[in-house]
Automatic annotation (TrEMBL):
GO terms for biological process: 'de novo' GDP-L-fucose biosynthetic process. It comes from Chitinophaga ginsengisoli. InterPro entries: GDP_Man_deHydtase, NAD(P)-bd_dom, NAD(P)-bd_dom_sf. Gene3D superfamilies: NAD(P)-binding Rossmann-like Domain, UDP-galactose 4-epimerase, domain 1. CDD domains: GDP_MD_SDR_e. HAMAP family: GDP_Man_dehydratase (MF_00955). It is an enzyme of class 4 (lyase). One of its GO terms (molecular function) is GDP-mannose 4,6-dehydratase activity. This is GDP-mannose 4,6-dehydratase. SUPFAM superfamilies: NAD(P)-binding Rossmann-fold domains (SSF51735). Its EC number is 4.2.1.47. It holds the Pfam family GDP_Man_Dehyd.
Amino acid sequence: MKTALITGITGQDGAYLSELLLAQGYNVHGIKRRSSLFNTDRIDHLYQNPQDEDVRFRLHYGDLTDSTNLIRIIQQVQPDEIYNLGAMSHVQVSFETPEYTANADGIGTLRILEAVRLLGLTQKTKIYQASTSELYGLVQEVPQSERTPFYPRSPYAVAKMYAYWITVNYREAYNMYACNGILFNHESPLRGETFVTRKITRGVAQIALGMQDKLYMGNLNARRDWGHAKDYVEAMWRILQQDQPEDYVIATGITTPVRDFIRMAFEEAGIEVEFTGEGVHEKGIVRSVEGHLTAVQPGQEVVAIDPRYFRPTEVDLLIGDPTKAQTKLGWQPKYDLPALVKEMVHADLELFRREKLLKEAGFKIFSQYE
Ligand code: NDP
Ligand code: GDR
């Protein structure tokens, strides 16, 4: 039975990867941060009492900014595989917390690699580093492959660029099995609420249910290569099961503007939206509504631009070339974009139907964040 250690286990990918590894018979250990509120919603269904017999899912308190903590946990767990998914992962927030982002996302990766080396585990422990399509940044070529040069456009991407290269360097210097998965955007109903897809599907659900009037957005022209997180965590696992450690691009090869994602999400809720105007004056107006929805009226403005969501430097176009992953890893995504949008919109409709009932019964509803 193999043992895996996952940093960032409380995040979107950590939750799906835990499910996958447990189903494969792994012992799964995860590092979670101490928080004043519970932060384990996404993995609560996997929790086992430490007192139970045959416990295969265990959590440790820790942080990527704390070297001695990481060394102690890795020494205790003696993992066959480490998946380093922990990160301050929000691009826009990284402009506000650049130093912390560099520490957690950049030096945090070094701390993991160095802990494995110091503990003499270089020939036992395989390491997966959560690298990102944000490394490509300012467009150099499309589609972007393992050979495309990097041009990071945010403190997040610059920190991840350090993490990418330190992973390559430890592989070459110490003969470690350490790999980068260069993953393009991947989403799901578990996606953090302030990333664009989830912000849209939550907004659409609330507008459809009459709980919100309008969605305020940033750059609708940005284009992303969106896949489903479930497919992408399978690629992470496959990357660590090869004979040789290598880096791989994981993507669908199809790119879509944010504006079209919004259109598709509204359509899934029975609302047809058309866009008019340009730049900060662009608006999304309801053209037609399926009969059963009374909360939304044709002619209603449901999307507007708020320049606060523009980024100081933007990544305009991402489209990945997954040929290497397809041929070497035998990886094929099962979801396409319409299936992803459908799953996310219906999950949020369900969530907000319940929230609405609670609100109507006099209970406090959850906070709204941007
Ligand atoms: P999330 O933001 O959902 O999860 C991030 C995880 O990292 C959370 O568990 C978070 O803990 C944890 N974390 C944050 N800071 C620290 C820290 N200092 N020490 C330890 N843990 C920390 O991200 P995703 O699941 O979407 O992404 C997983 C990884 O993949 C990230 O590294 C991200 O940058 C990268 N990535 C993501 C892509 C995507 O499209 N989703 C694409 C390419 C790369 P808490 O819950 O307490 O906040
Ligand atoms: P990204 O994801 O920056 O690609 O990073 P995000 O969903 O935040 O943005 C995608 C694009 O949408 C545009 N956008 C908005 N974004 C947000 N969050 N909110 C808005 O209101 C809005 N309006 C338009 C953005 O400008 C951007 O162009 C994600 C993260 O998961 C990273 O950790 C990961 O590395 C990359 O994907 C691949």
